[in-house]
Amino acid sequence: MKNIFLVLIIAFSSSFAIAQEPIVWNPDYELQLSDYQSPESEINPALTSYSIYSGSKIDFSFNMNSVSFMFTKNFNSKVKAIFQKNLAVLVAPDSLTANQLLQFGRYDFDLVELYSRKIRKKIYEEKGAFSDSSLFQPIFNELQKEMNTVSAQVFKATDFGKDAELLQKEHNKVIDEINTLSDFCMTCKPKKNRK
Predict the structure, then answer these.
(1) How confident is the model over 161-181, as a mean pLDDT?
(2) How far, in Å, CA of 15 to CA of 45, rounded?
(3) Alpha-carbon distances, residue 44 vs 88, 93, 115, 136 (angstroms)
(4) What is the rounded distance in angstroms from the CA atom of residue 76 to the CA atom of residue 101?
(5) Beta strand 89-92 with 56-60: parallel, antiparallel or unpaired?
(6) CA pair distance 94, 92, nearest whole angstrom
(7) Residues 41-78: b if buried by 16+ CB within 10 A, e if exposed
(8) Residue 105 in contact with residue 54, Cβ under 8 Å?
(9) How is 46-94 classified by DSSP, letter by letter?
(10) pLDDT for res 3
(11) CA-based angle 72:179:100, to the nearest 5?
């Protein structure tokens, strides 16, 4: 009996830990309302306001010695667009509003992937054999700021995603740009520039 109880505790703990893993951007996955797992998320008719914190962000990290760093040109796998389910908040008074916010969340996750690709591309173009890691911070800061500005502009222009037509138009632009930067997906190896 003790063993069964122990197995159940381990199984529950494992499933909880897995559920909290961030979602790494994938062109075949579309965010769902169930992905907004922050305890603050709710759909409640008593609410008079609505809001969203998308939970999408660029994760950039690497750990390598200076020799490896010197000879590494492709940092695509080190820059990830992720969605943190436990931090993603969606608050709405009804399912219609919740789905409009969800559409904005999907747009925002794709926007994060687009800017991850822009960061990967810029690093690839600017990293030389003797560059050090200080090269990355200005690139990251510049493109993060640009991404936040674009997201805020679309958020405001579409009224939190309520203007579905405008949001879809902006989303299509982001998808087109993602496809244009196909050499800079997380698992891709960019083509060498020929001079």
Answers:
(1) 97
(2) 31
(3) 17, 5, 34, 43
(4) 30
(5) unpaired
(6) 6
(7) bebeeeeeebebbbbbbbebeeeeeeeeeeeeeebbeb
(8) yes
(9) T-S--EEE--EEEEE-----HHHHHH----GGGEEEEE-GGG-EEEESS
(10) 37
(11) 120
- pLDDT score at 137: 86
**Residues across the chain:** 195
Does residue 105 contact residue 36 with C-beta atoms inside 8 Å? yes
The amino acid sitting at 48 is T
Mean of per-residue pLDDT scores for the chain: 85
DSSP annotation of 182 reads G
Give residues with Cβ within 8 angstroms of 140, minimum separation 6.
Answer: 58, 60, 119
For residue 64, the model assigns a pLDDT of 63
Cα 124 to chain centroid distance, Å, stands at 20
**At residue 14, what is the residue type?**
S
Global confidence as pTM? 0.85
Q: Residues 113-140: pLDDT tens digits?
A: 999 999 999 989 988 766 777 778 899 9
Confidence of residue 15 (pLDDT cuts 50, 70, 90): very low
